[in-house]
């Protein structure tokens, strides 16, 4: 059985990397074709174009890995079924449950690899590719990626942040105005205006505080009367946690890793933001739900290709492809509804996984009845 286990596992990974390589070549050709106008019109450096094309691939690969795993199982097991190897194994007393083990190991390995790749490679590569396209190829100002201009944001507890710009790279506010409302009321508790503010580390506590230059503070009493204080020396004070995430230029969801999305979920929960909170909560859950599709679709590919009643490989391939595409249609449809708040984020991310788990169970049960 160990020899058989190694044989099936080797065939699964062989077809997986062959299909993935073909997919990458197709993507490279597509990206090259899509950037032809920029290459001809803007005359960028070829090194920037090549980097942009290569760095655009990882995010596309993440989305294609589950289908690639299914195709690998379809081809590997389908070729065995076509060559009567599956029949020989079953006739020798090996159950389909035993044949499932190498598929589970293959699917589990691809799932872990897909999650790691989507966390540590794809987000940074996509962000860098967008930077190369907009700054190096199209010639836009690089500060659009680290500066956010004319900011008006609501923070924790209804606090209002208004400023001319925020430098996310260095943590510097320009001409900030901060309004702190009275909890449960419409009046102001205090107001701050300053020439600038920068994020610094407090030596005594090691925590993060903000150092204001040329600051003025208005403190209001219950009747609305103000007491004004002017600080001619730098004044330090703590503000809310993860304030940089509130003020920074927004990344696309695909450009964020698990930690960044989790931070934004915390921020928007505190702000009770009904528009952005469902979007990032759905993305948070899909970070885990999407890689699991690798296992499910691998099992779909095995169950369809190994079914002795599907005599032809083309028929098995078509049926498996239909199930795989149906999964992505359902996943994208329900996920889009969850991002817009029509469906609870947890259900939006995990319901396709649950549904296809039942489909996989039905297919495997059907196989075991043959045995």
Q: Nearest-angstrom radius of gyration?
A: 27 Å
Helix-strand topology string: HHHHHHEEEEEEEEEEHHHHH
Low-confidence stretches: none
> Total strand count, please?
10
* Sheet/helix structural class: alpha+beta
Strand content: 15-25%
Helix content: 55-70%
How widely separated are the two ends? Answer: 17 Å
Q: Characterize the quaternary organization of these chains.
A: single chain
What is the count of DSSP helices, taking H or I runs of 4+ residues?
11
Structurally, how many domains make up the residues? Answer: 2
The outline comes out as elongated
Overall pLDDT confidence: 87
Largest β-sheet summary: 10 strands, antiparallel
Question: Any descriptors?
Answer:
371 residues, alpha+beta, 2 domains
Structure description:
The chain is α+β, with helices and mostly antiparallel strands. It has two domains: 2-136 and 279-370, no CATH class; 146-243, no CATH class. 61% of the residues lie in helices and 15% in strands. The protein has eleven helices and ten strands. Strands 1, 2, 3, 4, 5, 6, 7, 8, 9 and 10 form a ten-stranded antiparallel β-sheet that branches. The model has no long low-confidence stretch (mean pLDDT 87).
What is the strand and helix layout of this fold?
Blueprint: H1 2-34, H2 36-42, H3 46-82, H4 85-91, H5 96-120, H6 122-137, E1 147-154, E2 160-167, E3 172-174, E4 177-181, E5 188-193, E6 196-201, E7 208-213, E8 215-220, E9 226-231, E10 235-237, H7 243-247, H8 258-271, H9 276-306, H10 313-339, H11 345-370
Antiparallel strand pairs: 1-2, 2-3, 2-4, 3-6, 4-5, 5-8, 6-7, 7-10, 8-9
């Amino acid at each position: 059985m160990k020899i058989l286990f190694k044989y099936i596992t080797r065939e699964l990974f062989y077809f997986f990397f062959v299909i993935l390589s073909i997919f990458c070549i197709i993507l490279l050709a597509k990206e090259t074709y899509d950037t032809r106008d920029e290459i001809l019109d803007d005359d960028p450096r070829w090194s920037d174009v090549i980097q942009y094309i290569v760095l655009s691939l990882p995010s596309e690969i993440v989305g294609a890995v589950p289908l690639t795993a299914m195709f690998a199982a379809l081809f590997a097991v389908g070729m065995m079924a076509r060559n009567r190897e599956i029949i020989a194994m079953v006739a020798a007393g090996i159950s389909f449950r035993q044949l499932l083990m190498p598929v589970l190991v293959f699917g589990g390995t691809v799932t872990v690899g897909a999650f790691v790749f989507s966390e540590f490679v794809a987000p940074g590569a996509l962000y860098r590719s967008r930077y190369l396209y907009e700054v190096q190829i199209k010639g836009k100002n690089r500060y659009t990626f680290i500066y956010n201009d004319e900011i008006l944001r609501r923070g924790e507890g209804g606090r209002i942040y208004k400023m001319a710009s925020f430098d996310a790279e260095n943590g510097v506010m320009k001409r900030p105005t901060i309004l702190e409302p009275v909890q449960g009321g419409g009046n102001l508790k205090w107001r701050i205006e300053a020439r600038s503010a920068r994020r610094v580390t407090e030596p005594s506590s090691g925590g993060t505080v903000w150092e204001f230059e040329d600051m003025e503070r208005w403190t209001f009493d219950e009747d609305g009367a103000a007491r004004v204080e002017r600080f001619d020396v730098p004044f330090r004070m703590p503000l809310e946690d993860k304030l940089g995430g509130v003020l920074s230029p927004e990344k696309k969801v695909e450009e964020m890793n698990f930690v960044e999305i989790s931070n934004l979920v915390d921020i928007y929960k505190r702000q009770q933001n009904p528009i952005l909170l469902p979007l990032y909560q759905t993305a948070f859950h899909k970070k885990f739900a999407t890689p699991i599709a690798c296992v499910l679709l691998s099992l779909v590919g095995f169950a369809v290709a190994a079914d002795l009643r599907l005599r032809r490989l083309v028929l098995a391939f078509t049926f498996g492809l239909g199930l795989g595409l149906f999964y992505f249609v359902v996943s994208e449809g329900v996920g889009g509804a969850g991002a817009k708040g029509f469906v609870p984020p947890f259900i939006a991310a995990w319901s396709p996984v649950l549904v296809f788990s039942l489909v996989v169970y039905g297919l495997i049960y059907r196989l075991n009845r043959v045995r």
